[in-house]
Write a structure and sequence with these properties.
It is built from 10 helices and 11 strands. The protein is of the alpha/beta class. It has an 11-stranded mixed β-sheet, sandwiched between helices. The structure holds 2-acetamido-2-deoxy-beta-D-glucopyranose (2 copies). Its main location: secreted.
């Protein structure tokens, strides 16, 4: 017994004297990586299809904007809505778990796209996500199929699939994938663009490209990652993948207290909203790997390849990008974001560690 304790202590002291490494520590598997049974078929009856609706955003500001709702069965009427013009691009926002077009995310993002000259549509999946999360995950597959049917009928009324941009937040970032995959299966045509705002990792992160968001889903897929080991996913599944502040946790109000899992996850949305209003301001640098992005260590790559997060992203500069931001809206750092000394933790840690409160 004493000998075992002695051996244990000897061994521990050997381990603690070694420098750590990722090989020794291991890598995170991520929150709820697998959901056994999550691929079981879910069926939406014809009676409940009416809860699948698209809301057209009209003119007006956020408080008094005109909103007109069309059910699954009313696509012909939607195409004739006075606020729809299929010569323009069409943005469709798809919310996450428990989200609704009446809640703030959609209420703010819809008018923001309208202001950019888009037809702005909000998909309501609320009825199909108001249940336990792993069940909602199962429902996103048939939701994807039925929304694709809605889009196919809209193309008969003049919608150009190449002018369609799906924006999905969290679970919505996976729902948009199922919409696009079904649309492609039914028409042979890929949609123009998908923007994934920290697409859900729970129940998805270990699945293959047929069962989660993937770059094959649209002509261009960009992913904004803000909480990759928590509610988001770590894999670079888009053409352009932004790992904001390394993608793990976002800076909060107190330097050494990051905003928590949900706060970091939602940051993908607020950053996207800020990028709609500040199109050239979120300048990111290319990394060699997700690991390098996590370590915020892409500053010295030569040559430095940059890309901008937002509607102006250069589609030809693909890969993994690190984006540094501040902790408050509108978050962007402009070209300062390309300098290591402006990286949030680096910039503010020294102010704190220089402080000696007991010195008097
Ligand atoms: C699409 O159009 C076909 C033919 O008019 C109709 O039978 C079907 O119900 C429509 N589906 C949707 C989702 O609008
Ligand atoms: C991207 O590449 C395509 C095809 O090579 C080219 O036509 C297009 O102009 C390029 N776009 C930009 C922004 O460089």
């Amino acid at each position: 017994m004493v000998r075992r304790l002695y051996n244990f202590l000897m061994f521990s002291s050997v381990v603690s004297a070694m420098y750590s490494s990722k090989a020794m520590e291991g890598y995170p598997t991520g929150y709820l990586a697998d959901c056994p049974g999550g691929d079981r078929e879910a069926i939406i009856s014809r009676k409940t299809l009416k809860y699948l609706t698209l809301t057209v955003i009209g003119k007006g500001n956020i408080q008094n904007v005109k909103k007109t709702r069309y059910t699954y069965f009313q696509m012909k009427s939607l195409a004739k809505d006075p606020d729809i013009d299929f010569k323009k691009k069409t943005a469709i926002y798809v919310g996450g778990y428990l989200d609704s077009p009446n809640f703030p995310f959609a209420s703010v993002l819809g008018p923001a796209y309208k202001k950019q000259g888009y037809n702005a549509l909000l998909l309501d999946t609320n009825k199909f996500t108001t249940m336990e999360y792993p069940v909602a995950v199962r429902y996103m597959r048939p939701v994807g199929q039925h929304v694709a049917e809605m889009l196919v009928n809209l193309t008969k009324e003049g919608l150009d699939p190449k002018k369609v941009e799906l924006i999905g937040l969290s679970l919505g970032g996976q729902t948009v994938s199922f919409i696009a995959k079904n649309f492609k299966r039914m028409t042979g045509v890929t949609l123009g663009r998908i923007t994934g705002l920290d697409p859900s990792g729970p129940c998805f992160r270990n699945l293959g490209p047929d069962d989660r968001l993937d770059q094959a889903d649209a002509d261009f897929v960009d992913v904004i990652s803000t909480n990759i080991d928590g509610f988001g996913m770590a894999a670079p599944v888009g053409h352009v993948n932004f790992y904001v502040n390394g993608g793990e946790f976002q800076p909060g109000d107190i330097l050494w207290m990051p905003c928590n899992v949900l706060c970091s996850h939602i940051r993908s949305y607020t950053i996207w909203l800020a990028a709609l209003q500040n199109p050239d301001s979120f300048i990111a640098m290319q990394c060699e790997s997700v690991q390098q992005a996590r370590e915020k260590n892409c500053y010295d790559n030569k040559p430095m390849v940059t890309n901008v997060l937002g509607l102006e992203t250069d589609h030809n500069k693909t890969g993994i990008f690190f984006l540094a931001t501040q902790n408050n809206f509108p978050y962007y750092l402009g070209t300062n974001g390309l300098k290591r000394e402006y990286e949030f933790f680096h910039a503010h840690m020294k102010e704190i560690t220089d402080n000696d409160p007991m010195k008097m």
